[in-house]
Amino acid sequence: MTIVRARREAVGGVPDAELEALINECLAYTGVPRHWRAPDFDAPAPPVLEMMLVKGEMRQSWFTAVTSFGTPADVTVQELRIETFFPAD
Questions:
Q1: Which residues does 29 contact at the CB level (< 8 Å), separation at least 6?
Q2: Please, are residues 20 and 12 in contact by the beta-carbon 8 Å criterion?
Q3: Count H helices, E strands: the chain?
Q4: Cα–Cα nearest to 35, from 64, 65, 7, 63
Q5: Is 80 exceeded by the pLDDT of residue 88?
Q6: What is the pLDDT of residues 7-51, one digit of tens each?
Q7: What is the pLDDT confidence band of residue 1, given thresholds at 50, 70 and 90?
Q8: DSSP letters spanning 45-66
Q9: What's the CA gap between 46 and 4, in Å, rounded?
Q10: What is the rounded distance in angstroms from the CA atom of residue 52 to the CA atom of residue 61?
Q11: What is the residue extent of each domain of the chain?
């Protein structure tokens, strides 16, 4: 479910050929679950994205939220999106 949210955020609602090529290259790596290759974009997105970073014995859990400005009056913030990370552990 969280890969759907990550992919939605990556394309920003407007996918282009270069970004789709990059996403397909990343999904082709060994160990990527098959269901990530065909996400259900009609499913509701969760409000936050959980992730865990692991290096050796060190593990950190985080969750992230993305804020998007909808219909701004100023063109300078038309597509402004702010991603914020918070520790989950």
A1: none
A2: no
A3: 2, 3
A4: 7
A5: yes
A6: 666 666 566 788 778 888 888 898 888 877 777 767 777 777 788
A7: very low
A8: PPSSEEEEEEETTEEEEEEEEE
A9: 9
A10: 4
A11: 1-43, 47-89
